[in-house]
Amino acid sequence: FYFRNKHRPFLLFVSLLHVHTPLITTEKFQGRSRHGLYGDNVEEMDWMVGKWLLDVIDKEGLKNTTFIYFASDHGGSLEAHRGNAQLGGWNGIYKGGKGMGGWEGGIRVPGIVRWPGVLPAGTVINELTSLMDIFPTVVHLAGGSVPQDRVIDGHTLLPLLQGTVQHSGHEFMFHYCGVFLHAVRWHQKDSGTVWKAHYATPVFQPETSGACFQRGICPCFGDGVAHHDPPLLFNLSQDPSEENPLSADTEPL
Q1: Span 2-170: which CATH code?
Q2: pLDDT, tens digit, 9 for 90 and up, residues 61-107
Q3: What is the pTM of this model?
Q4: In the chain, domain spans
Q5: Is the per-residue pLDDT at 171 higher than 70?
Q6: Is the dihedral of CA 200, 202, 207, 209 positive or negative?
Q7: For residue 107, which of 240, 244, 243 has the smallest C-alpha distance?
Q8: Which UniProt keywords apply (predicted)?
């Protein structure tokens, strides 16, 4: 692909099977990680991205002219386990994981960008963007313009990455589990506070586990989901782990 297209603009979209069940890992990487098959999968994915993509781009002299964006479509899956050992993903301070609708651990993932000829290295941007932003970003890079006859949910990432704007263009973000709306976040522009309301949350099994081990994956509807009226409300700016739901008593606003 690189050899055929290196002298003209190209778009390469790579959607890896890693890290996803069934955890298919080649022999070379089986047993490499202390975290079971899930860890082996992560290590193989890391090797593939480095060897097949980044190294080749560098070797072909395309490093400074190629915009690379690496992200995941959801947070780490937590339910993989052997006996009492949890061998799934790890989402840091964030509650929940893959398939959980609105919890931060299921939707908040790193976006890693590389474009040495244009973007400075080592920059950290703590603004929430969306995978829907890829489309308008690519259109922008190609010198085109997005359709004007409909609402486009994404925003080009370039101004944020280049520092010409300080905040994401997303004031509201809607978080679905399948076709069911589970949560909505609001970035309050005047104060900079990020609020999130949960209308439905998965019922963890066991209750304090933070995952759905007994089901294998959390459902989006039915008896495996709790509905909240009024919704659970969190101030993510102060409580990113979503531990303390607010009430009229604790938050007059």
Answers
A1: 3.40.720.10
A2: 999 999 999 999 899 989 877 777 777 888 999 999 998 989 999 99
A3: 0.88
A4: 2-170
A5: yes
A6: negative
A7: 240
A8: Calcium, Hydrolase, Metal-binding, Signal
